[in-house]
Amino acid sequence: MRRVLPARSCLVLSCGLAFGLAAACGGTAEVPGNGDDSDSGGEGAAAPTGKGGTGIDLAMGGAGWMGENGGEPPVQVGLRVTADETEILATGEPVVVQLHARFEDGSLPNQVLWTVDDPRVGSVNDDGELRSNGFVAGELTITATVGVHTASVTVHITVAIESDDGALDPDVKDALVTGGEGGDAGVGPDAGFRFLYPYDGTVFPLGLAAPVVQLGGEDADGTYVKLTAGPLSYEAFAEVNGLTRVILPEAVWRGATLSVPSGEAIELSVSKVTGGEVTGPLTERLRIAPGSLKGFVYYNTYRSKLAGDSGAVMRIKPGETAKVLQSGCTVCHSVSAHGNVMVAGVQWDTQNAKVSRAFDLPENGGIQLRNEQSEGRVYSFGGLTPDGTWMLTSGVPASGAKMRGMSGELFSRLVDTSSGATVPAPSLTVKVAMTPNFAPDGSRVAFSNHDKSAAGHVLSVASFDAAQSPPEFGEVEDVVTDSKRVVAWPSFVPDASAVLFHAGDSFDTAKPGGGALYGDVHLVDVESKKVNELRALNGFDADGRLYLPGGAAQEAHLNYEPSVLPVPVGGYYWVLFTSRRTYGNTIAPGGSVERGDDIWGVPVPPATESPSPRKKIWVAAIDIDHQAVADPSHPAFYLPGQELESGNMRAFGALEPCKKRGKGCESAAECCDGFCRETSRDEAGAPVLTCSPPPENACSNVDEACKKASDCCSSRSLCINGRCAAPPPVVE
């Protein structure tokens, strides 16, 4: 956005003005304001009011000065900003540096408005005190505004944090820093020492709990870890008694994720000592997407302690821990992309759910009954339109491949979730559309097409137009035909250009009572119908070798039921999926969670069936430009916050029910009007963001509403599903 100065007189400009600005009498002069053709200054934040350099230096009279009785304009006086320190070293403790704003004649302004270009790095209060929390490194430009005058200063913050529990001898610490035999990296007596979790090359979003670093080999007596993220470094010595793990402090992990420069990676190295002998260091690189996952994650759980050792639908706000949304046997659920409606079967009786229920998910985070149907199959596994108004029911074939929990025969139909009544749709020609899913923009629907294959070998897509009366389904196109595997559980990427799906032995993730069923998550481009195997997501490297540390018998082809977050974040799409892979040395043979060797769920008395604790929700980044790369997927990470002991499956990523104007927000993805802007500042000078009406004549920041890419503030932004999105990152 640019501020336009009213043309009531000629403006007097300083000679030091750094850009071409001409203002003729009777014309207007434009002065750069909030983020014109620039990045949005951090996710969810309004674009900065000032940028690097000395800014604009205008006459004291300012815009609209008319003079008195034809007198001369006032004498021009420039503004200057200085800092007591411009090179700051932080060590994990808050740092305060005083800033000063003065006019060139030495006089002090009465009032200064201070702004920063990245509030994650630091903030400035009304007294001109720059505050750093001591954990985030980077370059910060602070701008002072006095009337029409602006000036800036740039400071560089470096973070170096050291931690030592004091339990290791100095000689041992020296050996850990030097590394294995002869000081060569990776050398040592324990050949089994390796990273079990996280995986090298994993892409993490912002805002999640620090990953628990888990390593294989013999138990350690002590560890040395070094983490670097651009201008941030962290080193720690710790005694270990048992399984080799490194617990990164949450403040350090958050600081590292915010400090790592764009395109670079966090480098993590670990050495260990066992019985006086050092092995290591091991080194891996973790990438960070500059954005936080939006909304909630909903999933089914079984034998949950939080739900009283029962089943439930759980909900996690990314960065927090799971909470029970609907307890009891509430299964076969689906959630609308807008996060306002959930449907499910209830009270499963080994064949079908006894009843169907639709629920409203209001803004306050609760759940309310929307509608109930006596036919338990109506809402089970259905595909909801983005706002949850309608649902395409999942058909049940009389014979052939079926989903567990759906028996008999049932044709697919479009229903109103507020009443359960059929919505007339003559253009719906498919009789049995199984596991249907609508695109986040509602433009398409995908399903496993039983009409084409009783064995579940065909995945089809049709266009959909809810604005027509009656709603109109387009021609059905087959996008995947797999003669050997069931292709099911489709989920569209946010721009509806591709579908992720489960290709496996069955619709299910295990046989009833326990038993092996294998699967992987693949992607198909809707237009070209080209299928990508997503090797990295499924645990394979570019050459087709399994990189998962547990080996093929423990970890290969155990990935199912994908669901894509409805909005891109940080230049990536994000897919949630069920997996039975190991989780480091926590849920694995010999791990700390009981039955970590039970992949399939062996009955454990007194229960007749006990789900495997290995069945968990994992998340992986997918490149937005998926058509342009050999493998657009990246290694997955374990979704933090879910229960370790329970069996969890079939996650849905959905936005939060939208917030009305005036409500606090972190990004515009939360706001009904599609805009989240700074409306005030807190005591520390940090921006306070609220859902706001669409601003006039202003560009849109990341996550804010758009109709085309040129509506976005950054020239590099994309417009995906009606919202500005960060472009794919440039990786070094």
Continuous helix count: 4
Straight-line N-to-C gap: 31 Å
Category from helices, strands and their pairing: mainly beta
- Give a quick account of the main beta sheet: strands, pairing sense, barrel closure: 9 strands, mixed
Strand tally is: 46
Q: What is the mean pLDDT?
A: 88
What does this structure look like?
With 732 residues, this protein is mainly β. Among the domains are: 2-156, Sandwich (Immunoglobulin-like); 165-290, Immunoglobulins (Immunoglobulin-like, Sandwich), CATH 2.60.40; 668-725, no CATH class. The chain is built from 4 helices and 46 strands. The strands form 12 sheets. Strands 4, 6, 9, 10, 12, 14, 15, 17 and 18 form a 9-stranded mixed β-sheet that branches. Strands 29, 30, 31, 32 and 33 form a 5-stranded antiparallel β-sheet that branches. Strand 34 and strand 35 (498-504) form a beta hairpin. The longest helix has 10 residues, at 250-259.
